[in-house]
Amino acid sequence: MKPLIQAIAVLLSPYLLRGTTKPSVVDFPQTIDGGAWAAGHIQGIAVDPRKEVVYYSFTSMLVKTDLDGNVLGTVTGITGHLGDLAFNEEDGRVYGSLEYKAANSFYIAIFDGDRINGMDMNAEKDGIVTTVYLEEVARDFTADTPNHRYGSSGIDGVSFGPAFGRQNGRQMLSVAYGIYSDTERSDNDHQVILQYDATRWSSYEQPLTQSAPHTSGPASDDGKYFVYTGNTTYGVQNLKYDPHTGNWLLGVYKGKKQQFPNYSLFAIDGSATPRRGVISGQQTTEEGLLLPLLQQGLKHEATGIRGWNFTADVGLESLGNGYFYIATQGRVLQEGGTRQTAVLDLFRWSGAASSPFELVSR
Predict the structure, then answer these.
(1) What is the mean pLDDT of residues 17-32?
(2) Residue 112 and residue 209: Cα distance in Å, rounded?
(3) By C-alpha distance, which of 161, 159, 153, 193 is closest to 176?
(4) Which residues of 153-169 are buried (b: 16+ CB within 10 A; e: fewer)?
(5) Are the C-beta atoms of residues 109 and 213 closer than 8 Å to each other?
(6) d(CA 204, CA 211)
(7) Which residues, including other chains, have CB under 8 Å from residue 63's CB and lie 6 or more apart?
(8) For the chain, first and last CA: distance in Å?
């Protein structure tokens, strides 16, 4: 078996990050238990492969573990909705969607993971979190056309990757809208994704102040894109760029409109150049930059929509070379009440219509 292991190690050869070699995915555990927490359900995950740590969003708290599931620290005191997470390899920090709908305030929360080294560290008081306000999201959320432009319910999925239509280049932060599930509307059948050059954000970052939300952030995005998937239930829950295939994966809660296939996983063709076209279903004719779905997976003949019936909506992380961690949520009863859990399993991308991921077994 030794030659086989060596061959796999070569195939999964680690790449460089800021002069430091990442451990090979072949050494990553098949399963990681993220613990049980008195918080909301798991929303997203991010992995720092160089330091071999995992970050978990449990809606109102952030948890940090090593690859064996040993807890290294937690961040609490978040009163908004902390959604999907993305690890930024360029600055070593964790970026997450954070929304306060009652205040019409939508942020990217930026966590300094190196400083998360204790339990119940406070998101406002311990200097761990900065936030950047997203004006474009607030504009669409508060627009009365008829109620929330494009059916926007805020933001959730986040990921770093190149500008759409490019395989390489500067890493942009992509932020996906949540979309209300409203079967009576026709203007909420696209996923909406904003891209930002986050390297320009240092002047916008402010400490998290939940009692007095700030509005420090870019006046506009660096690109706004539309993906025709049919209406979903709360839009893109997990967004992930996969450098192995060059495509973008969208994990969603299934939609409820009967005229659509209502897949739970979609993929954007990362090699396709965005094209300007009509955003269908709007109250008045409107054009935008349209992104095509990858021509793989199941095909719905009536609409041409492609996708998969695969659940990847609460935690999806690309590890490189076609490998992913995918989270499964759960609940356990412990002394004091119900606790939310997250278990990560190691998968390999196949793209097959029957199931796009294969569970890795040791």
Answers:
(1) 71
(2) 17
(3) 193
(4) bbbbbbbbbbbbbeeee
(5) no
(6) 19
(7) 34, 35, 37, 55, 56, 71, 73, 74
(8) 12
